[in-house]
Amino acid sequence: MATATAVSRLAVLAPGTSPLAPGRRRPAVPFPTVSRPRVLSAASRGRVLCLAASAPASSTDAGQDRLQKVPITNIRNFCIIAHIDHGKSTLADKLLEMTGTVQKRDMKQQFLDNMDLERERGITIKLQAARMRYVMNNEPYCLNLIDTPGHVDFSYEVSRSLAACEGALLVVDASQGVEAQTLANVYLALESNLEIIPVLNKIDLPGAEPDRIAQEIEEIIGLDCSNAIRCSAKEGIGITEILDAIVTKVPPPQDTLKNPLRALIFDSYYDAYRGVIVYFRVIDGSIKKGDKICFMANKKEYVADEIGVLSPNQMEADELHAGEVGYLSASVRSVADARVGDTITHFAKRAESALPGYSEATPMVFCGLFPLEADQFEELREALGKLQLNDAALKFEPESSSAMGFGFRCGFLGLLHMEIVQERLEREYNLNLIITAPSVVYRVNCANNETVECSNPSLLPEAGKRRSIEEPYVKIELLTPKDYIGPIMELGQERRGEFKEMNYITENRAKLIYMLPLAEMVGDFFDQLKSRSKGYASMEYAVVGYRESDLVKLDIQINGEPVEALSTIVHREKAYTVGRALTQKLKELIPRQMFKIPIQACIGAKVIASEALSAIRKDVLSKCYGGDISRKKKLLKKQAEGKKRMKAIGRVEVPQEAFMAVLKLEKEVL
Amino acid sequence: MLRSAFPLVFQFPHRRKPPPIPPRPPPVRRYASPAAAAAFPPLPPASAYVHLPFCRKRCHYCDFPIVALGSSSPFPRGDGDDPRISDYVRLLLREVAATRPVSDDGVPLETIFFGGGTPSLVPPKLVAAVLDALRGKFGLSACPEVSIEMDPGTFDAAKLRDLVGVGVNRVSLGVQAFQEGLLRSCGRAHGLREVHEAVGIVTGCEGLQNWSMDLISSLPNQTQDMWEESLRCTIDARPTHVSVYDLQIEQGTKFGQMYTPGVFPLPNETDSANFYKIASKRLSEAGYQHYEISSYCKTGYECKHNVTYWQNRPFYAFGLGSASYINGVRFSRPRRMKDYADWVQKLEDGTWCPESSTSELKDMAMDSVMLSLRTASGLDLHRFSKSFGKNLTLSLCTMFRPFVESGLVIAMDTERQALQLSEFDVDLENKGDTGSRVAFIRLSDPDGFLLSNELISLAFGIISP
């Protein structure tokens, strides 16, 4: 190991005289510092081999040298910006494969998407990074790919990971063209002064029109596409060109090795054995194993017990310099202490100022999470606690409801974040949950001149006791090709949006600004925007403050019993539509029972929508053959189990699915 | 008499030593409270079910363990036996021989039921052999009920006479429908002509008074008129017993592949419920008592064998896939011939003994509820209370209260006279302590019966929360 370290130092100091001169085979040397099993598997195979750059066979071998230091001028930090399904993960996989970072036999699809959930949904939730070694013109380069999450809920995280890069690959499907998600992130990238390399992917598909799409990128984003790379990540076409372009176009990091340490945290996760693992990019100075460090925003001190690089498995290193990307473990107890955007500096030699752009996580959307079985409450608390260790944006506090029992009111960055948390609770912690409709924090001005904050419809002070309700508003900026201005304005109108201004930023694209109640946006606004603009519109928003609105509490009654969990706060003008949609959906979803069931939507005592569920007529198993009652009993037991999974609302058994679907519907119609 | 009809070939010499006595099954109801044990003294079974799995072909709705023979000789009567049948009966006799009677003091069998399959495909002398074996092993009471299932087109007058001659005294005739088209679309191996012939043979058979007609309602493309016609024909044939089964679409059957319950050509739920109500009405008008969800009879002609099941009493069972209930243990034999043969071998070797997981108290309470609520006699609350406790009984009653109110459940006194809701309420308030009048609860006919699954599963929820 000592040798290896010495070698790496040497490489930094005297790049020209690297002992690993191209073309000369070097005897195999064990890989430096390997302490964990997950690294071991990769490392036990790992050998520092020669750097025969020209020979394709050994270009994969060269990847094994990725721990070696290169001069800062040979470091390239980049990310990939792409719309969902445009092939980001496939391209990332190919880059890892081509550079030998991941051996072909270890390749599982979409290597960077670690969570099952990510791989299933094709989205990136947690960030990842991979250090690759690439040799061009006999010169070794260190390429760091920093993955970005692709959803508006995580735009803060996106902006921080962009801030850790100097360049970005803009991957656009050569048959689909530029889409919404891409745009918002491209603009973020342009704001961060990233060098953007346009890449037209999927050129192997029959519908590919790279020329047209290149022109589109030029028009919409205003990016020179004359040298856009045409590739097919799936077929492995154009990958070398991409790697070459990263080397030639993306600027190297600034050489600020002499400055005091400043490293940007762009992600962190909680490891049950080692505490929080922090992913960072060294902006200035250098960080060594054993350094006493300090996180500038949370003002806490730690010792960097372990540092290393991500490739994409963690590989320990002794020191990381300005421009490099890596991880550290410093017995940090919760990810909330190592918040994305925070700056790492040395305790003894503090940087003067933190890196710009840090902000606290503010939950925007709230909902109630209730365990289906009351005895899972403690498990839910524990699970939320564990998720919080790894998710600084998740907030929760206990709540109880007569229909749902004990649960938690939770705050999320947005709807996707909420869905992810819910799914992880169910999948990873085996909890069965009922989730109430998402809501925002209302301010209720009470008759006694008090102001109460309320995010839970069932806790809204009674109509007689409140003077007015204020709700949070957002300023929302929409970018759209001009063809979709009409449908988008309709959407804005439907969502109680107040039109502010519109101007054309290019001949074909317009920017619209609306003031919109946040409650209207936490629903499926984003999905609607995408579907109404065929995916071309993008949006950004910021909360601007509270405004008084004519809001009412809409209650749902099943067989005369109010179902608190289904209560919502809506604008008076929308109450009727929402009420009808909810009662109709419930009628579909509640299994018929042995008696007729009225389902009503009410404001106060006034019924505004009503449906009736007819009674079951027949449910009988007639034949009990040859005394074999076991099958019949099994069926009846199953039926009884089914009833257990239902929540009794008065005499009515309501299955969890009905709650779920109605809550989902609430998200859509509200 | 039976001896003479019993050919020598079926007196299988014992090729091996008598099997060692299997280890005595663990004490019944290990988890049962003493009260429960007192309520259910381990009665020796007085009933035996014998499965004769042979059919011409599989009906499209059937998922029972059967052996399809194809359309071989129409009325096998002794000579030229199908070896598949004789081999099977041989196996069956081995099972009977290897079965240890529950009591040594010899409680004789009171009912025997040959079910299938199509037992009428089995030659009478083989039926006789089985009867003989049962008699030899367990003894028969003075006038046992011996039922056999018969399908139209599988027997003639002579064969039925032979069966009656060997001791069969009750026939269950699988007619299912009185419409040629419906019979064909169910994949029945007979047509309407055979139905009428069979009815003629059965009603003309001397020494056979007790017979049942099986019908199926809610068949694909069945209309209300067709159903009324089937009921009329049934009533005209004057059977002493009628079984009306509501078509169940089972997975893995042809119907299961072709149809979805409630979707055309199957009748929708309303029509299907209506068929059930019509049957109840027409048969009651014709003097039949609706004594169980799917069974009707003239006074005194209940199927004693089936009543054993509803009363949760023990019974032996023999043959492929059959289910027995002995010493508190329910056991289903393997459904595949090879597995069944292996199992019989183990039984003989004494290497098989019933699973030791005897029913828990909860399960027994569930059995008791699900079986008794199928009958017009209903659930005996005093007995139930004795076995499973007053609290459980009270919880059940409380749960059923809204349904007593809506008329799906009927509370009855010791004379099985319906009680008013107010009287039921009084008992609920008294917690059944003093002056309690409610002795039974039953499901009403037809509305309660029609919702029996819902009502029984609610009861299950109370028993096993």
From TrEMBL, chain A:
Location in the cell: Plastid, Chloroplast
Record keyword Hydrolase present: yes
Domain Tr-type G residues, every copy: 73-254
SMART domains assigned: EFG_C
Enzyme Commission numbers on file: 3.6.5.n1
Key words of the record: Chloroplast, GTP-binding, Hydrolase, Nucleotide-binding, Plastid, Protein biosynthesis
Reaction(s) the record says it catalyses: GTP + H2O = GDP + phosphate + H(+)
One GO molecular-function entry: GTPase activity
Name of a matching Pfam family: GTP_EFTU_D2
Sequence positions that bind GTP: 82-89, 147-151, 201-204
Biological processes per GO annotation: positive regulation of translation; translation
Cellular component terms (Gene Ontology): chloroplast
Entry function: Promotes chloroplast protein synthesis. May act as a fidelity factor of the translation reaction, by catalyzing a one-codon backward translocation of tRNAs on improperly translocated ribosomes.
Xref: HAMAP family: GUFP, LepA
Entry's family note: Belongs to the TRAFAC class translation factor GTPase superfamily. Classic translation factor GTPase family. LepA subfamily.
Protein name per Swiss-Prot or TrEMBL: Translation factor GUF1 homolog, chloroplastic
Higher taxonomy: Eukaryota, Viridiplantae, Streptophyta, Embryophyta, Tracheophyta
TrEMBL record, chain B:
Cellular component terms (Gene Ontology): cytoplasm
Function comment: May be a heme chaperone, appears to bind heme. Homologous bacterial proteins do not have oxygen-independent coproporphyrinogen-III oxidase activity. Binds 1 [4Fe-4S] cluster. The cluster is coordinated with 3 cysteines and an exchangeable S-adenosyl-L-methionine.
Protein's GO biological process: porphyrin-containing compound biosynthetic process
Xref: Gene3D superfamilies: 3.30.750.200
Family membership: Belongs to the anaerobic coproporphyrinogen-III oxidase family. HemW subfamily.
Positions of the Radical SAM core domain: 40-289
Species name: Lolium multiflorum
NCBIfam families membership: hemN_rel
Source species, domain of life: Eukaryota
Gene Ontology MF terms: 4 iron, 4 sulfur cluster binding; coproporphyrinogen oxidase activity
Name by which UniProt lists this protein: Radical S-adenosyl methionine domain-containing protein 1, mitochondrial
Entries under SUPFAM superfamilies matching the protein: Radical SAM enzymes (SSF102114)
Lineage: Eukaryota, Viridiplantae, Streptophyta, Embryophyta, Tracheophyta
